Amino acid sequence: MPEFSPAFREQLQDLFRWRRDVRHFRRDPLPEPVLDGLLRTACLAPSVGLSEPWRFVRVDDPHRRAAVREDFARCNARALSDRAGTDAQRYARLKLAGLDDAPHHIAVLSHPEPTQGRGLGRGTMPQTTTWSTVMAIHTFWLAATASGIGVGWVSIIDPERIRAVLDMDPTLELVAYLCVGYPAQPASTPELERRGWERRAPERREWIRR
Amino acid sequence: MPEFSPAFREQLQDLFRWRRDVRHFRRDPLPEPVLDGLLRTACLAPSVGLSEPWRFVRVDDPHRRAAVREDFARCNARALSDRAGTDAQRYARLKLAGLDDAPHHIAVLSHPEPTQGRGLGRGTMPQTTTWSTVMAIHTFWLAATASGIGVGWVSIIDPERIRAVLDMDPTLELVAYLCVGYPAQPASTPELERRGWERRAPERREWIRR
Prior knowledge:
homodimer, alpha+beta, NADH Oxidase, four-stranded antiparallel sheet, globular, Nitroreductase/BluB (chains A, B), Cob(II)yrinic acid a,c-diamide reductase (chains A, B), BluB (chains A, B)
């Protein structure tokens, strides 16, 4: 096993600290080999029973992209209309997706009952399959950040509609719709914190004891 | 933003490659400051709306630990009885948890409807809350691996029963029960692959195009 040095661990900490949900992108595309490399790295993620339930989809078709943007606009308008007063004003000021500028759109779906892995480890906790896909997305995100590439996870969408827009098998579950590209404004603090939406809770950094 | 060097990226790739689900542990405990540091690092994980829904629980009480082991044994026996022939024989040969030897047991729960984050980003995809906790677990796992520490995620348990054993708020969802300690046998290949249970699928490393 390789020995990881204190210097590496310090940089890894930096990576976790600077890994942001990016909503502001430059429009220039990434080299294709770089994107391919990120996908291969994502596939090193843990998966229950070694089931690799993830499906990574490059969305390049302009009509499909436009349909995704429309769905986001509709869902975001609804989310805003559910809020009132200062809360609504603050929400309206946030930029919550980089769908217009990000050069790459990547949808990530998950097979809910994969034959790969032969069911191991998911009998009592079948959600661990979807969670494996979440860890593949997180691996992609960290590897991208280490290459100076930004990722934004758009969740203000109707997952069923997006799956239909992408014409993917209805048995697959949409887990994430990612915007990917060079970030316009790197930052070590979450945008939601910088804009006064929410702060980290120090009590999360303490153990609960049992 | 820090520039990550090609050397760092290569080591990061090693980290992803050597991050294993560990089932064989040495019994010596980790220094407490190391465990505390891993928890603080885990809290750098992304979370929807900056909601930080994770709750990390150190399980030290021997009675609770014994109850968890019993539950695993029961669930694993049931998983075995659902299999037949060669499949059952192969399953029976696998070691699927390091609960006996691992010096530390850590349960990770998730608040399904946190007030922190004020609901942002989870309106149409409420599962993103649980998925945030999954990314905190994955962050913990990677940071541990970088420190030569092994993590094993036990999912062959009844999550409701474990939550009760730990006497945690019934509104919380049990996401993972982790074994943590120094690994007895580091390896770059998943144990399930080494033991012929399953292999990685090369087609996962290709984009689906839309």
